Sequence to fold (399 residues):
Amino acid sequence: MKSSVHIIGYEFELEKYASFSPQTQRRLAQNREAARKSRLRKKAYVQQLETSRLKLVQLEQELVRARQQTTYTTQPNGAGIGTFEMEYAHWVEEQHKQVAELRRALQAHVGDVELRMLVENGLNHYANLFRMKADAAKADVFYLISGKWRTSVERFFLWIGGFRPSELLNVLLPQLEPLTDQQHAEVCTLRQSCQQVEDALSQGIERLQQTLSQSMALDQSIGGSYRVQMAAAIEKLEGLESFANQADHLRGQTLHHMARILTTRQAARGLLALGEYFERLRALSSLWAARPREPT
Amino acid sequence: MEKVMGLASDNGVVIFSKSSCCMCYAVSMLFQGIGVKPVMYDIDQDPQGREMEKALMKLAGTTAGPVPAVFIGGKFMGSTNDIMSAHLSGQLLHMLKPYHSLS
Fold:
């Protein structure tokens, strides 16, 4: 049924076509040709897209596999740090997105349920960073605590491979007002405990420096003593990894307790303030590097 | 183990350490900073140090080294991680109340 109607329609078109002027006929033929070429181009383009998409999926799979390999096999220090640098770059990108989300959510006055989710995401994101840093500490603790992976201004504030938690509390506090008296007291207690732990860890690292320096200052070049001296020094340096881990543990605990003390909305504001603070420091680092200077 | 538990119950606040361990020093500094004078016991200076270390390893489990090992009132409180967490939560100050030095 359909086909006979189609044929009838086609014949009707043919008749109509035959009645057109030669110029019109030529134009119609050109249009048909152009349409045909366009369809071919589109087909080629879509095929290209498909191929690229497959390639992308393949590359992504390779990347995941490569990451897994570098995490789980013993390798020279360079490889582990390479992974860390890549993952940290992703971390910063994701952080930027989360900060923008928090800003939008707070401005739009979304409900507590959605805010709670954003706060959880933010806290988990920081937890991920500490996990990454723990792996990096295993690979090359000196790299981690040197802050080479951070921007210059962040490095200026460096305390055992990151920010000083008590100082971050000072950054946050004014952004969280108004706090209840109870909250104020709890935050002040937290800040004090934080400072006490920081002082203890700082003293521990200082002691490590002093004792290492003293032991290296001795000339033990006679026979086996040199080996013993170096072995003892290596054991000392291995202790640095614990300090790096404890510093991050302190940072994580501080965030955890702040989230406990604050309401969901306050916690969201706090995470936003923190994220924006870090972004500003990074921006400052870029501006500093690019500042106009007298030619020497 | 008996020596460890003996020393722990004989003294209010004991931190088992090694003379070369700077984290042990850090933990002792924390206690002093909050007004408590812990007894520091260097197991590497003890003739039974090896056995003590084994006993402390058992207590510490897989996540921490044998030292520092903190005992309060004869009870094992944990290693560095546990002590830091306890201090931030306020628990440590609470547990150390009876041991504050009056100096």
